[in-house]
Amino acid sequence: MLSVKSEREIELMREPCAIVRDCLAFVGERIGAGMTTKEVDALVENFIRASGAEPSCLGYCGYPASACVSVNEVVVHGIPDGYVLREGDIVSVDLCAYKNGFHGDGARTFRIGQVSAEKDKLVRVTEECFFKGIEGLQAGSPLYDIGYRVQKHAESNGFSVVRAYTGHGIGKEMHEDPSVPNYGRRGTGIRLPAGAVICIEPMIAAGTWRVGVLGDGWTAVTLDKRPAAHYENTVVIREDGVEILTL
Ligand code: MF3
Ligand code: CO
What we know:
By secondary structure, the protein is of the alpha+beta class.
């Protein structure tokens, strides 16, 4: 069941969401060639804890880190390890912070140095997909209009929408109803009420949308090993639009 948040609850959610926003910006200023994905995770964990929050991902369903760090063909849920980032990589960093009894959730895909024209466009189009997704979104909008617009933008640019993972509601739990797919039929789905708080997170692939999960049980990779990108924000549905809490 979708929960509608009160203004008081939304007020409490601002802080974990601002920590996610600032942490993503902090990582973006420091990430670069020569850094391991484990070092990226350490930046995230230290930043979140120094902000008086907890990293929601750590221990979630047994997840072993504070951030998901997903390089190139890894779509989501890359587990930080000794991999050394190098020029030409694209790296999505996805993180959640818990404070005031609520979670915030966001992700960005970063370019390491000069990347291929295809990767560059993929990262740009994935961000654009988020903004297409929220275009015209307000109380009463059909849920699957979001995915309809995301899919249209991704596919019209020659990319594909990953189906196996979706956005989600968020609040006292990191994952709440509803599931927010990045594909769909216009005019369908529940009508989103004012006060719903959801994470919209396009996961877009350069090639096939089909993914597989590695033996670690987490790492989701594209089956054709072509790159994928991810961009996510936590947003509040308002009477006259949306409010983005992690930007
Ligand atoms: N932040 C992710 C999301 O967008 C969740 C990561 S799964 C976890 O839903 F296990 F890492 F927490
Ligand atoms: Co999310």
